[in-house]
Every structure is written in C-alpha cells, then in structure tokens.
C-alpha cells in the first residue's frame, strides 16, 4: 500500500464505493467458495453459515479500504482480489 | 502504526460517529430494555381474573381442545400455540395470531390474538384476547433505531446505521491503538473536559469492544439477510435455496388430516423430555397441523446451553407419530455447525447463562447508549470556542452554530427517547380501560413525548434544555414505580400492582434509573449555571448575533494533532 | 443451572478484574497501585477460576461467553467507580 512516506489521499467517495461495492462482491465470492467446498453440513445450516459470513467480510473490507493510499489503488487492489476470488469460485464450481 | 493512517481513521470515526450516534443511542437504550421484554409486558398486563384462570383446561385434558380448534379454525391450523403453563402468563391455554393482510413478517404490532375454549357441548368458542404490545413496541424502536415500524425500508436504514457503527468501531480502535496499553483503565477527571470525555468514551468503547463488534455485525445481518439470500440464491445455490430451507417439509398439497388422531400434547412433551432431561418445555407450536407435513415445535429452555432466541430452542416432532424428527435447534443437542449459528443469535439476544447474563447485557446496553452520548459530548467539546485567557474581561465568544445545533439535537433526541419510552410504559397502567386502542396510544404517547423533547431542546437551547429534559427523564422514569405504588395504595383507580419478581424488578430498575437521571440533572444544572460561560453548555453564553461564516482551521489541526504523535 | 457455581464464577471474576485494575497506574481506588506482577498473577488465577466455575454451571460455549460479558462489564465499570471516588474525595 505504498511507501511509508507517501501521504494518504482522502478520496472519501471513491474509497467508500470501492469498499462497499467490491467488498460486497468479494464477500459473496468467498461465501460461494465456502458453500461449494463445505459439503458435509446439513444444507440449511450450510446456507445460513454462507449468509452469515458475507457481512463480516464485506464490512471488514469496507473498513480497511480507507487505508489504501488512494481511491484508485483501492479499486485496483480490491478489483484484483475480486478477480482472484471469482476465479477460484469458477474453478471450484467446475470441479465440485 | 503510521500516524497518517491514524489521521485518516480519525476522520472516519468522527463522521460515522456523528451520523449514527443518536440513532444508536435509541437502539441501545431500547435494546437494553428489550432484554427484559417479558417482565415488562407482565408489569403492563392486569392480573387475570381468578375465574378465567380457573377455566384453563389441565394439560392432560387439552387434547380435545387442540384437535377441535385445529379442525374448526383455519388460522389456528396454520399456526397454533399451546402454552404448557409452567410460567404464570399468559393464562390462556391456546393462542393463535391473525396477521393483517400483506403485513411484513417482522411487523407483529398489527397482529390480533385469539384463544379458544370448549363449550359444555364440546363446540369450540374462539374469541379475541387483548395483548399488550408495549414490549413489542420498544423492541421495534430497538430494531429500527427509533422508527415506528419494522418493514423493509426501515430495516435498510437500520442496516446502514449498523454499517456506520461497525466503521466507527474499527476506526475508533485504530485511532486508539497507539495509546491503548498506556491509557487502559484511565479516566482522568479534571479541568481538561475534553480529556475527561475522551477517557469516559474510550473506557466504554475499549472495555466492551467485543460486545459492540458482535452487536454491529449481527444488526447488519438482521437488516440485510433477505437481500443477501436473494443474491446468493442466484449466484451460489442455483435458485434452489427455497427448496433447501423447505427441506423435508416439501409441498403442502395432499388430503387434510384429522387432528383428532394426533398424539396428545402431554405425550409429545414426554417424548422430548425423555430425550433431553435438562430441557424444560414451555410451549407447543403446531405448524400446518392439518396438512401432510404437519409439525409441532416443542419450545423450551435449557439454562446450561445456548438458545436461539428469547423463546428458547425447540425440538421438531411429528404430531401424528410422536417421533422426534430433529434436534437441530434443541439447546444442548445441536451439531457443532448449528451451535455456531445459535451462538451468533445467543450473543445478540443474551439467550444464555440465565438471569445473570441478562443483567450483564442490560448494563452493557445502557453503557453502550452512554458510549454514543459521550461521543457526541466529545465532538461538541472539541469544537468549543474558548475565551482567550490572556485578555482580562475579554468577550465571551459565540459558539459555532453547528456545535449549538448538535448539542441541542443530542440532548433532544437521546433524552426524548428516554422520556418517550418511560412515559409509554407508565401509560400502560394509566390509560388501561380509558382508551379503546391502548396499543395505538402507546405509540402516540411515545412519539409525542419524543418530538416534544426534541422541539424543546431546539427552542430552549442545549444548555437549559439539558437540565429540563434530564429532570423530565427522571420524572417519567420515577413515575413507573410511583404508579405501581399508587395502584397498591388506591385500588379504586383501577390500576394494578403486580408482585411477581419480574414485575417488581421493573419497578426497582426504573427507580434506580430514575434516581440516576435525577443525579445527572442536578450536576447538569450546576454546570449550566456555574460552569464556564464559553461553552455551549452554559446558560450565560452570549446569543447568536449574526450567522457567521468563519472557517476554523484551528479545530481541525487540534483534532488531528491529538493522536499524531 | 447451578446457582452456587454461577455465584462463585461471578465473585472470582470480580476479584480477578479488581486485581488487574488495582495493578494499573491509572487506578483511582487507592492512593497507589498494587505491585503489578503479584496483582496481575493473582488476578489471572482468579479469572481462570471464574471460567472454570462458569463451565460448572453451563456448557463450555455459554460459559466462555458469560465470562467475557462479565469481564467486559467490570472493565468498563471499575474506572467509573474510580472517577466517583476521585470526585467524592475532592468534595471532602
């Protein structure tokens, strides 16, 4: 997240949108991987756990997004993280 | 930690806190009271006449009543509750609800309650029963941060507030991190008011941090879960989520069954207690009892275990075979994964550890309300314009307009909610029998008091209103035990004084809280009259001359400098 | 639920948190803090005992939750009690 000397740009709107939108999709992707990989639980319990894990990840990412050096970096990093998570999700979906 | 990051999160904390603070005060104050919803409803309900209590059929003879009610009342066939009578209330053996057409599933304020008795000829007589919605009303205030109804739109508001609350928690923690160990336990009372409010705020925020994280996340989920399920259904579950949750219930088509062939209630209870001896059943909930997938939930408590909600947990039983179908929600009999889920609910609702944990949550909830109130006090104190000390007889500066408005809003909204809730509780006894629709009046009384307090705060100004409204909060809260006392002394008033521990607990708690408010009113009065005049909390502050547009870089610098070291 | 075990658990939690509070340089109950190491050690032992006592009264998960909730409440309340002492002392 940039070198220690570089000041952090505020970019409130851009960072908030990145954290709220990309954080939500990231959380959904994680819950998808969870739901596909964990198959030993009773389906209703598993579906509830998958739902419950979305909000902590989502809001955690949102809270963390203000630490990025700029709004642009927030979009880039979180976009990349989304690409990875959805890549894994697609792979898991294809295999399992 | 880089000071730069701390500075960014300081701004996040200030903004999220100031936007969400007052709504969260109401949510926490009402939420703390909601912990004791059941005793509160009991306090508000007149003791049943002796003859109607005598009419209650013994459980061993309830089978015919249940079967005939299910057969003759379609609404009861959908969902019927049979109270086992271990608790003193409600006295009716049977109960079912009729919801308003198109009502939100979370909106229980509009539902009507019915019960049934058997006539001498064996026919079912259904009649409506009055239920106090007082507890539910305060619960709704808690769930949707002071808004009147719990529907999709207000839940989104609650969800946004919960998200801001979570941001405020994380950012507050980051801001505090550099001095966390050094300042732990510090509450420095002294002339530096900003220091004092900051310590008073931090002690609560850090000391009960895990509690608040749990509350923020669970509240956000309660607000957003419908939406998340919809998206996940398409994305993850391939549209099969409905079927997953329906499970073995399947379709409801098929020939209606004769409820007379069901296993009698006392036998169903016996099957469950045989399986789980420490489980104490309180209620049977018959769901679609005349359909092909009839189920009965045996609700009850096990104080050794985690429970899903205030009702406790349940075992799922087939009422026609008497077989225990599922113990997935039976306290203490759950799988590890189900225990994780139940933990989340239990941690929000304080449904574990019995009475001690309920009292701990009550206290933590009230302290949470104080966390948000003190946060606003801190915001105000940080933006206060002080008189220059060097200038003798120097002019006392006019406080910034936004600071004065925020001060008025803080006392108006927060203390207005306190007054409104206390007054609506008192109204349960005073208005009973004098108005046709008491439950509608509960809402009216609350909002009239609330908006009157807010109006008063802006009209009188924060300083004077803080004293007035604290006195009003003390008076309305003390009116709760005084009403009970009056009811006991003057029975001709038609009110009642219940002496069960739960109902008396309401009176004693209100007495203590009322005295606390009275004490706060006293010190606020002293501060307003004798405190420094260069404060929004002084009665001697100069009035607003002209709307002044002064930018104040000093405040920003001061705020940011505090933790930058 | 075993009421005696709960009472013991609550008392041990109270004693444990009081030891930790009194060992802090910010404590305001006494004129000077207790020696840090022995007080913290005693406090930790009491808190450990509190967890075990809770676990006698209920299953492990609710026992841990109840313990944490109780400790949180005490950690918040103790500094306020200290502040009340300071104010009372000043008035005298």
Number of domains of chain C: 1
Q: Please describe the biggest sheet of chain A, giving its number of strands, its sense, and whether it closes into a barrel.
A: none
Strand runs of chain C, count: 0
Radius of gyration of chain C: 15 Å
Question: DSSP helix count of chain C?
Answer: 3
- The pLDDT mean of chain C sits at 95
Terminal Cα span of chain A:
35 Å
Tell me the overall shape of chain A: elongated
Order of helical and strand elements of chain C: HHH
Q: What structural category do the secondary elements of chain C indicate? A: mainly alpha
Element string of chain A (H = helix, E = strand) = HHH
Shape of chain C: elongated
Number of domains of chain A: 1
Stretches of chain C where pLDDT is under 50 for at least 5 consecutive residues are none
**Stretches with pLDDT under 50, minimum 5 residues of chain A:** none
Tell me about the largest β-sheet of chain C.
none
Assembly state (oligomeric): heterotrimer
Helix content class of chain C = over 70%
Describe this structure in words.
The complex is a heterotrimer of chains A (96), B (565) and C (92). Chain A has helices spanning 12-37, 43-64, 71-95. With 96 residues, chain A is mainly α. Chain A has one domain (12-95). The longest helix of chain A is centred in the N-terminal third of the chain and has 26 residues, at 12-37. The radius of gyration of chain A is 15 Å and the shape is elongated. The model of chain A has no long low-confidence stretch (mean pLDDT 92). Chain B is α+β, with helices and mostly antiparallel strands and 565 residues long. Among the domains of chain B are: 50-132, no CATH class; 396-561, no CATH class. Chain B contains 19 helices and eight strands. Chain B has an eight-stranded antiparallel β-sheet with strand order 4-3-2-1-5-6-7-8. In chain B, strand 3 (112-118) and strand 4 form a beta hairpin. The model of chain B is unreliable at 547-565 (pLDDT under 50). Chain C is mainly α and 92 residues long. Chain C has three helices and no strands. In chain C, helix 1 (3-23) runs antiparallel to helix 2, helix 1 packs across helix 3 (60-91) and helix 2 packs across helix 3 (60-91). Chain C starts with a helix and ends with a helix. The model of chain C has no long low-confidence stretch (mean pLDDT 95). Chain A binds chain B through residues 4, 7-8, 10, 28, 31-32, 35-36, 41-52, 54-56, 59-60, 62-63, 66-67, and chain B through 2, 4-5, 7-9, 11-12, 163, 166-167, 170-171, 216-217, 220-221, 224-225, 228-229, 231-232, 235-237, 241, 244-245, 247, 328, 335, 337-338, 340-341, 344.
């Amino acid at each position: 997240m940039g070198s220690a000397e570089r000041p952090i740009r505020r970019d409130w709107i851009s960072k908030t949108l990145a954290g709220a939108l990309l954080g939500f999709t990231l959380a959904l992707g994680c819950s998808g991987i969870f739901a596909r990989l964990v198959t030993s639980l009773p389906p209703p319990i598993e579906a509830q756990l998958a739902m419950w894990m979305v909000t902590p990840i989502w809001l955690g990412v949102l809270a963390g997004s203000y630490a990025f050096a700029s709004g642009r970096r927030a979009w880039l990093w979180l976009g990349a993280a989304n690409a990875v998570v959805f890549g894994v999700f697609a792979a898991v979906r294809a295999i399992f | 930690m880089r000071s730069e990051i701390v500075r960014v999160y300081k701004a996040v904390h200030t903004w999220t806190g100031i936007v969400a603070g007052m709504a969260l005060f109401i949510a926490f104050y009402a939420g703390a009271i909601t912990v004791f919803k059941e005793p509160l409803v009991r306090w508000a309900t007149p003791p049943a006449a002796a003859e109607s209590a005598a009419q209650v059929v013994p459980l061993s003879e309830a089978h015919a009543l249940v079967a005939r009610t299910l057969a003759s009342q379609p609404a009861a066939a959908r969902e019927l509750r049979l109270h086992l009578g271990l608790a003193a209330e409600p006295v009716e053996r049977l109960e079912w609800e009729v919801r308003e057409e198109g009502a939100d599933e979370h909106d229980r304020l509009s539902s009507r309650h019915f019960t049934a008795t058997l006539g001498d000829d064996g026919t079912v007589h259904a009649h409506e029963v009055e239920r106090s919605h007082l507890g539910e009303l305060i619960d709704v205030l808690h769930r949707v941060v002071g808004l009147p109804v719990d529907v999709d739109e207000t839940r989104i508001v609650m969800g946004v507030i919960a998200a801001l609350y979570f941001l405020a928690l994380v950012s507050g923690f980051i801001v505090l991190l550099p001095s966390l160990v050094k300042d732990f336990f510090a509450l420095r009372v002294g002339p530096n008011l900003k220091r004092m409010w900051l310590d008073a705020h931090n002690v609560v925020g850090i000391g009960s941090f895990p509690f608040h994280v749990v509350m923020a996340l669970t509240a956000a989920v309660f607000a957003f879960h419908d939406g998340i399920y919809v998206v996940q259904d398409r994305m993850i579950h391939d549209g099969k989520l409905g079927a997953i949750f329906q499970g073995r219930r399947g379709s409801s088509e098929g020939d209606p069954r004769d409820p007379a062939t069901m296993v009698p209630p006392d036998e169903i209870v016996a099957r469950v207690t045989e399986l789980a001896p420490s489980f104490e059943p309180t209620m049977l909930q018959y769901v679609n009892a005349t359909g092909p997938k009839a189920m009965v939930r045996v609700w009850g408590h096990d104080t050794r275990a985690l429970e899903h909600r205030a009702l406790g947990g349940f075992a799922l039983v087939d009422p026609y075979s008497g077989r225990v179908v599922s113990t997935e929600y039976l306290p203490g009999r759950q799988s590890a994964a189900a225990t994780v889920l139940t933990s989340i609910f239990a941690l929000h609702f304080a449904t574990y550890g019995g009475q001690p944990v309920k009292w701990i949550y009550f206290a933590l909830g009230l302290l949470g309300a104080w966390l948000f109130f003190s946060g606003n006090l801190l915001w105000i104190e940080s933006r206060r314009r002080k008189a220059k000390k060097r200038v003798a007889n120097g002019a006392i500066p006019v406080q910034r307009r936004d600071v004065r408005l925020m001060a008025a809003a803080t006392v108006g909204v927060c203390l207005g909610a306190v007054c409104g809730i206390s007054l609506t509780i008192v109204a349960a006894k005073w208005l009973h029998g004098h108005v046709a629709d008491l439950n509608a009046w509960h809402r009216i009384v609350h909002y009239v008091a609330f908006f009157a307090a807010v109006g008063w705060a802006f009209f009188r100004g924060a300083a004077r209103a803080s004293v007035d409204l604290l006195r009003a909060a003390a008076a309305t809260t003390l009116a709760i035990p005084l009403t009970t006392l009056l009811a006991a002394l003057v029975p001709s008033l038609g009110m009642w004084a219940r002496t069960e521990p739960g109902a008396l607990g309401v009176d004693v708690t209100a007495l203590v809280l009322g005295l606390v408010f009275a004490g706060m009113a006293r010190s606020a009065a002293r501060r307003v009259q004798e405190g420094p005049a260069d404060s929004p909390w002084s009665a001697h502050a100069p009035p607003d001359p002209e709307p002044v547009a002064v930018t104040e870089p000093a405040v920003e610098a001061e705020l940011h400098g505090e933790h930058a070291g | 639920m075993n009421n005696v075990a709960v009472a013991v658990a609550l008392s041990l939690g109270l004693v444990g948190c009081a030891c930790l509070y009194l060992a802090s340089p910010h404590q305001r109950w006494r004129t000077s803090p207790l020696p840090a190491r022995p007080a913290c050690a005693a406090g930790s032992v009491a808190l450990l005992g509190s967890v075990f006592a809770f676990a006698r009264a209920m299953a492990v998960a609710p026992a841990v939750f109840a313990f944490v909730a109780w400790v949180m409440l005490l950690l918040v309340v103790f500094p306020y009690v200290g502040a009340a002492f300071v104010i009372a002392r000043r008035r005298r």
